[in-house]
């Protein structure tokens, strides 16, 4: 092989090696969730998407590697003066996502630092326009206002701010103690109100119970009075009937009926006195002999009444029997009695 052939062979081998090296340098694999910007002679030309990509070595190069996933930015703590001149310490967290790799790479020099400073500034502005009570109670409203302002300001940077959340709002220690006393007073007030309402409800229930008891008691007394009056009425009717019977007896029997009635009442009175548990000594009237005679007369009167009753029964029975024929076929004499 001549010297010229050797030189050509060497150049051919070098060309192949350079071609292989350039080929490997021109092949780029972009991972999922990332986008790479390509610059040609220092000027942005295009974006490489996730997967296998080709570029021209020496002429093109990778400019910036942009993470397209949602990212979390921790905003450092700072002291903020509220509208009523209260100093509070505030820190927050922001969630954002790059939606335009070119803008994120070339519209802002340091994307993370820019978002952080923008968030710090807007936190001071928003919370400085609110009083301390509003800062402590309207956290969601503050988050919404911060999200709206920061998202609008970062549109030119090719990012989308998804959420802005306040993590801690720490007021001064003396204010914390004052708020604790206020909360305690408020809880004591609510407890007293609830206790008073409970006492009132209990009194109302007790009054309603007493009212129902009084109504039932009055109805019971009314029913008892009605029953008592009805009993007295029946007793009066019975007494009137007894008086009528006695009056009729007096009209037909004369003095014996009067003595019988008085003797019966006297015996009932003595029986009532004897059955009483408080009766210890009994005083009989001086006319004890007369009383005994009256009682004896009552016995005779009772016996006479029994004899009269028996005779009347016999007469009634004889009248009810049919007349029988005498011996020998002679007809029986007419009349109720046969005095033969």
TrEMBL record:
<feature type="region of interest" description="Disordered">
    <location>
        <begin position="312"/>
        <end position="340"/>
    </location>
</feature>
<keyword id="KW-0812">Transmembrane</keyword>
<feature type="compositionally biased region" description="Low complexity">
    <location>
        <begin position="312"/>
        <end position="322"/>
    </location>
</feature>
<keyword id="KW-0472">Membrane</keyword>
<keyword id="KW-1133">Transmembrane helix</keyword>
<dbReference type="InterPro" id="IPR050710">
    <property type="entry name" value="Band7/mec-2_domain"/>
</dbReference>
<dbReference type="InterPro" id="IPR001107">
    <property type="entry name" value="Band_7"/>
</dbReference>
<dbReference type="InterPro" id="IPR001972">
    <property type="entry name" value="Stomatin_HflK_fam"/>
</dbReference>
<dbReference type="InterPro" id="IPR018080">
    <property type="entry name" value="Band_7/stomatin-like_CS"/>
</dbReference>
<dbReference type="GO" id="GO:0005886">
    <property type="term" value="C:plasma membrane"/>
</dbReference>
<dbReference type="GO" id="GO:0098552">
    <property type="term" value="C:side of membrane"/>
</dbReference>
<feature type="domain" description="Band 7">
    <location>
        <begin position="25"/>
        <end position="183"/>
    </location>
</feature>
<protein>
    <recommendedName>
        <fullName>Protein QmcA</fullName>
    </recommendedName>
</protein>
<dbReference type="Pfam" id="PF01145">
    <property type="entry name" value="Band_7"/>
</dbReference>
<comment type="similarity">
    <text>Belongs to the band 7/mec-2 family.</text>
</comment>
<feature type="compositionally biased region" description="Pro residues">
    <location>
        <begin position="323"/>
        <end position="334"/>
    </location>
</feature>
<dbReference type="InterPro" id="IPR036013">
    <property type="entry name" value="Band_7/SPFH_dom_sf"/>
</dbReference>
């Amino acid at each position: 092989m001549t010297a010229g052939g050797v030189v050509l062979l060497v150049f051919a081998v070098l060309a192949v090696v350079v071609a292989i090296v350039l080929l490997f340098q021109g092949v780029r694999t972009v991972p999922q969730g990332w986008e790479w910007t390509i610059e040609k002679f220092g000027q942005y030309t295009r974006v490489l998407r996730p997967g296998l990509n080709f570029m021209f070595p020496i002429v093109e190069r990778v400019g910036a590697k942009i993470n397209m996933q949602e990212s979390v930015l921790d905003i450092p703590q700072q002291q903020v003066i509220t509208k009523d001149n209260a100093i509070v310490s505030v820190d927050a967290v922001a969630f954002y996502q790059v939606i335009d790799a070119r803008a994120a790479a070339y519209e802002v020099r340091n994307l993370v630092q820019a978002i952080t400073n923008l968030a710090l500034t807007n936190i001071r502005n928003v919370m400085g326009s609110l009083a301390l009570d509003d800062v402590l109670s309207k956290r969601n409203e503050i988050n919404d206002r911060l999200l709206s302002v920061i998202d609008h300001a970062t549109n030119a940077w090719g990012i989308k701010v998804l959420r802005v959340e306040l993590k801690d709002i720490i007021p001064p220690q003396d204010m914390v103690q004052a708020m604790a006393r206020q909360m305690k007073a408020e809880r004591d007030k609510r407890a007293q109100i609830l206790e008073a309402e409970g006492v009132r409800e209990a009194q109302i229930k007790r009054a309603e119970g007493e009212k129902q008891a009084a109504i039932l008691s009055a109805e019971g007394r009314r029913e008892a009075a009605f029953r008592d009056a009805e009993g007295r009425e029946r007793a009066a009717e019975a007494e009137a009937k007894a008086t009528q019977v006695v009056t009729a007896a007096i009209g037909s029997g004369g003095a014996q009926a009067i003595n019988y009635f008085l003797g019966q009442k006297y015996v009932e009175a003595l029986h009532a006195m004897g059955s009483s548990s408080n009766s210890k000594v009994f005083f009989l009237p001086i006319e004890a002999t007369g009383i005994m005679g009256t009682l004896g007369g009552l016995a005779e009167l009772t016996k006479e009444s029994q004899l009269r009753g028996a005779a009347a029964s016999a007469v009634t029975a004889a009248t009810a029997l049919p007349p029988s024929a005498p011996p020998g076929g002679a007809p029986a004499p007419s009349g109720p009695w046969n005095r033969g």
